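Researcher: Please predict.
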Amino acid sequence: MLGNLNDKQMDALLQSQVLGRIGCHAEGRTYVVPVTYAYTGKHIICHSREGLKLQMMRQNPDVCFEVDHVVNMANWQSVILQGRFEELEGLAAEEALGQLMSRVLPLLVSETAHPHEPVSSPERGRTGSTGATLFRIRIREKTGRFEKQ
């Protein structure tokens, strides 16, 4: 049976996962990339080093975010969010870092996956020696689908 997830089911899926995919589009190019995240109910919180993803989201802050849970091809759930990229600075970046770290810390196995602790810096949303930028996606719309047999 195919169906739509209700708000409670979508929230449960978003809370249960830590890996999603951001889709961004700028200058005629579309880019989809996996990211670790924390879900707050209103935002998706992420971090990234400088690169194509941040460049594109700065140019066009309207983004898409997708998360799924697949048991097999006949049993899966998926949520797609439409939202707006917001780069975080100062206290907002520090709070976001705390939320993100409490969610993903038990899973960290890679130095590049760890945004490190924030340091005082005039640079926007930057943390630690990795140069990670904290950002969030302000959720505008969410839809969810499932298949279950």
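Model: The helical segments are 7-16, 52-59, 90-104.
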